Amino acid sequence: MWSGLKMIVVMFLIFFLFVELEVPAGAQIQEGLSDGPSSPFTKSRLSVQVVAGALFGPVSWVHDHAAFDYAQTNLRFGWMATDPKERRYLGRGNFELMFELTNSVVFKGSGNYLRGFTLLGRYNLLLSNPKWVPYFQLGVGAIINDAYKDMSQSAIGQAFEFTPQGSIGLRYIVSREWTFDVEAMYHHISNAGLSDGRNGGINAVGGFVGVTYFFDELWH
Questions:
Q1: Rounded CA gap, 83 and 45, in Å?
Q2: Nearest-angstrom CA–CA distance, 186 and 204
Q3: What is the span of the domain harbouring residue 109?
Q4: What is the pLDDT of residues 68-110, one digit of tens each?
Q5: CATH number of the domain where residue 69 is located
Q6: What is the pTM of this model?
Q7: For the chain, what is the domain count?
């Protein structure tokens, strides 16, 4: 199985490769109704998103670990990095960078908490229907935890662990400031081999619901 650091590198290479895959300048572009001049999905707009849900693990075809399930709440601060453009393979949309503070409470398995931060890159797909905005995102972060203190498990080997992850989501635009959000996530926890003998890792999947607020004073 690839180490956590190798997963991180591959995920970011794949994500940022798409930044260059734009339709040539002479191509016909159909502008969506959700990306006009008053849309929040234009460069430099700011937002805050809160999502909460649960993740269930392990999902693994290599290791046989005990159950590790946790409820997670994420507070995300977003910055629109690009204006909407037509991109080959992705469709019309824009890239968003996010900083996330994350807190998890373990309700089944070793330990009690996972706390840390994540850096995320998101692509918002702007459809002709102005009410719906799908997105996908990749990210990597770090957490501190107390699960490593349980020496009977080998999945989490130290207090500091890495968290590469990927999500797909869907926003429903409620108003010019608010969206209602649902999201599915794959979440990996490991220490990239920094803890000899205990780095089986956790692969968890789950879902979230939440809301996003776009700061009104930044709208044109």
A1: 10
A2: 6
A3: 4-18+45-218
A4: 999 999 999 999 999 998 887 788 899 999 999 999 999 999 9
A5: 2.40.160.20
A6: 0.82
A7: 1
Residue 192 lies in a domain: yes
pLDDT value of position 81: 94
29 within some domain: no
Count of residues making up the chain: 220
What is the mean pLDDT for each group of 10 consecutive residues in the chain (220 residues)?
51 51 42 58 93 88 76 97 86 94 96 97 90 95 95 90 96 92 96 80 95 73
